[in-house]
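queue> pop job 88
queue> type: inverse folding (structure -> sequence)
queue> payload:
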């Protein structure tokens, strides 16, 4: 894996902290929490996507793909957090409740589990 420099590592860590704060405060009802989470998700996911693996080990390549999928899911969770604030997608009320309302939690859980599984030991 290509290592990140000090600034990129700081952005990566700060993004993770912002994601945790944003997700936690969203559950408490803080109106600005989706913005905090989205900023953290952008920093975290972009820095993790910058890391490259040039080797040929199939297992590490598979785990790397899982990390990239979880990065995309972190960003999807941010979009769903914004959509959770109001019906900005223009869906009917039943469709909105069925497919959008609070579904960011499920997407975030799946992304976190993928990150946990693919983390280096």
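queue> result:
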């Amino acid at each position: 894996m290509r290592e990140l420099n000090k600034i990129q590592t700081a952005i990566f860590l700060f993004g993770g902290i912002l994601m945790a704060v944003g997700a936690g405060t969203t559950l408490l009802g803080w109106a600005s929490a989706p913005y905090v989470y989205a900023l953290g998700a952008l920093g975290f996911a972009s820095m993790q996507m910058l890391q490259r693996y040039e080797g040929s080990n199939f297992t590490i390549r598979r785990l790397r793909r899982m990390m990239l999928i979880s990065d995309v899911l972190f960003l999807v969770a941010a979009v769903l957090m914004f959509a959770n604030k109001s019906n900005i997608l223009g869906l009917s009320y039943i469709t909105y409740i069925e497919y959008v309302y609070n579904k960011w939690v499920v997407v975030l859980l799946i992304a976190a589990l993928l990150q946990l599984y693919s983390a280096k030991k």
